[in-house]
Amino acid sequence: MVDFLKLAKRKTLLSELVYYVLNIGLVVVLFVLSQTIQVPVLAIALVLISKWRVLAVRPRYWWTNIQANMVDVIVGVSIASLMYVPQITMFFQVVLSVLYALWLLVLKPQSKRRAMQMQALVSVALGVTALYVVSYEWPVTLVVLCMAIIGYSAARHFLYTYDEEQIVLLSGLWALLFAELGWLAYYWTFAYAPFSFIKIPQITLIVLLVSFMGDRMYRSWAKHGQIVIGEVILPVVFSALVIGVMVTFFNSVTI
Question: Domain extents for the chain?
Answer without folding.
Answer: 1-109
